[in-house]
Amino acid sequence: MQIKTFNENGKARFVLSGSFTFDAYRDFKTEYTPILDSGTFKEMEIDLGGVEYLDSSALGMLLLLKERVGSKPITLSNAKGTVKSVLEIANFHQLFTIK
Q: What CATH number matches the domain at 2-98, 3.30.750.24, 1.10.540.10, 3.90.180.10, 1.10.3720.10?
């Protein structure tokens, strides 16, 4: 999986592409940890437009991120196809804003 990170105007944005699986855990955590530690963001967006596949490990990573972020809003954007279906089945719309 590839991750591009942007942190501008109080919005942290992560653009993911490829397969979001357990193999991506270290890279995903490496990307978001400095931003969380800095506390310089007011909201976060995870752009899933380039993600072709995600598994239960990816769902777990998103839940861990949500726990670490606390009350700041997280948006999951651009999910499509199977990825969107998995998020819907897992009821992630109750925990995240999905666009």
A: 3.30.750.24
Enter the pTM of the model. Answer: 0.92
Give the torsion sign (CA, 19, 25, 28, 30).
negative
Q: What does the pLDDT profile of the chain (99 residues) look like in tens digits?
A: 999 999 999 999 999 999 999 999 999 999 999 999 988 899 999 999 999 999 999 999 999 999 999 999 999 999 999 999 999 999 999 999 999
